[in-house]
């Protein structure tokens, strides 16, 4: 079961970096809640699509997820990964310079009924701004 949960998280990242997030409905629950998304985004697969297209893709291009490692216990999976891409859109008042980005992130997911039901994420925001301004 733990390996199956980790595979679900791997699929989440593969699909979430594909335009339109095809198949996200089979990965996240209809009421999926990600605690780091903007509060105005809908829950479920549509919220994931909007986050990836309206937020991430508006700031970064050529996005890839490089998973460092995962730990699974019970119904939770922690994933340590790098978000890799190019800074090609504004982030607040930081204008893009086309810098290559490599952001350390840690996510925790709760799995229920074979789908991702909830997510939390931390990322190195100071390192992100530093890389953007370099």
List its traits.
Nuclear Transport Factor 2, Chain: A; 5-stranded mixed beta sheet; 3 helices; 134 residues; 5 strands; alpha+beta
SSE blueprint:
Layout: H1 2-16, E1 28-34, H2 45-59, E2 60-73, E3 76-87, E4 100-112, E5 115-123, H3 125-133
Parallel strand pairs: 1-5
Antiparallel strand pairs: 2-3, 3-4, 4-5
Report on the architecture of this protein.
By secondary structure, the protein is α+β, with helices and mostly antiparallel strands. The chain has one domain: Nuclear Transport Factor 2, Chain: A. 29% of the residues lie in helices and 41% in strands. It has a five-stranded mixed β-sheet. Strand 2 (60-73) and strand 3 form a beta hairpin. The radius of gyration is 15 Å and the shape is globular. The mean pLDDT is 95.
Q: In short, what is this structure?
A:
The protein has three helices and five strands, in the order αβαββββα. The protein is α+β, with helices and mostly antiparallel strands and 134 residues long.
């Amino acid at each position: 079961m733990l390996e199956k949960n980790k595979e679900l998280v791997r699929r989440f990242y593969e699909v979430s970096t594909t335009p339109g997030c095809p198949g996200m409905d089979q990965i996240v629950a209809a009421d999926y809640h990600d605690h780091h998304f903007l509060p105005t985004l809908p829950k479920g697969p549509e919220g994931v699509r909007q986050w990836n297209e309206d937020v991430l893709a508006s700031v970064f291009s050529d996005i890839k997820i490089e998973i460092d490692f995962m730990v699974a216990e019970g119904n939770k999976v922690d994933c340590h990964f790098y978000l890799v891409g190019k800074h090609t859109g504004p982030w607040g008042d930081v204008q893009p310079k086309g810098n290559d980005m490599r952001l350390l992130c840690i996510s925790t997911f709760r799995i229920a009924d074979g789908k991702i039901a909830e997510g939390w994420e931390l990322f190195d925001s100071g390192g992100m701004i530093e890389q953007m301004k370099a």
